Amino acid sequence: MNDELPFTGERFVPGTAGEIWYEHWHRYHFVAPLVAGREVLDIACGEGYGSALIARHAARVTGADIAPAAIAHARACYAAQPNLDFREADCAALPFADASFDVVVSFETLEHIAAQEAFLDEVRRVLRPDGFVVLSCPNRVEYSDQRDHVNEFHVRELYRDELATLIGARFPHASWYGQRPSFFSVVWPEQGHAAAEIFEVSETAADAPSPGHARPLYFIVLASGSAETIAELAPRMSVLADRDEWMYRDYEKVTRAHVAGQRAQSDLIGELRRELTAVQAGRIADVEQRDTVIAEGWTMRDRLVEEISRRASFRWWLTLPWQRLMRALKGPPTGR
Description:
Shape: elongated
CATH class of the largest domain: Alpha Beta
Number of domains: 2
Structural class: alpha/beta
Strand content: 15-25%
Number of strands: 9
Distance between the termini: 30 Å
CATH superfamily of the largest domain: Vaccinia Virus protein VP39
């Protein structure tokens, strides 16, 4: 974790554990080959890690962010890269001349601002006529609606048709991608890159595959005013694999906790049944004592069932890394 620029939940900082790092690093790795030899503007660059990564491929990269602390940190942290610089900038009023860049990159920016139209107008202005923009945005259906999830830092999330309208009004040519962290069985050739495919199956219909991934959590769009530019960006599939298998191992921990909770629930229910049997048999004679035992027992049972249900939910599992981070930052309890 970076002590100078802590993770608050609003911007990603390298060192933050959880599936969030899959999402953010993968986007920059995905775009890196596309910017080779080009002049690039990375809007809402945050800590600067992504600008630094694509600067290894691009002719020059300028990272822009509205937060002075983020820009100061990025300048200090990545000063050794000669083709990389950082500027404080409002994404809806960029301090750059018209047609200054070949590529504009902006990941997870739109949903954080109200001035979405002004932002995209500025992107179009600073792009060269044959340039292109690469941006990402949560898919509101999957990100919020289906998960009953609220991100306190998001100002306006978009459905696909809303995003398409915003982009299409400024960039008539676009290539769409979907991104979703998940578990995959990957088969690959040892000799190197090759043609790829992705298809979905379900356990209940494993013999009926469907092409593609039908439920993107995020949209990634490459858009341009030039049809030729988009045509040159050949569609490709990209898979980021975690050497340490963080998500899978964390899921195992949650699953084991869930199973242990179910066993504890079963044991508690058995104990309650024995207590109730004892009451019925008259072995607890005192009425007040009997009522106390029953009330406490069922209260414990209800709390356990509620906790098991909460931990079994997808939303709880997704927020688990954030909960652990907050506990780590607070430190151990002092006790009184």
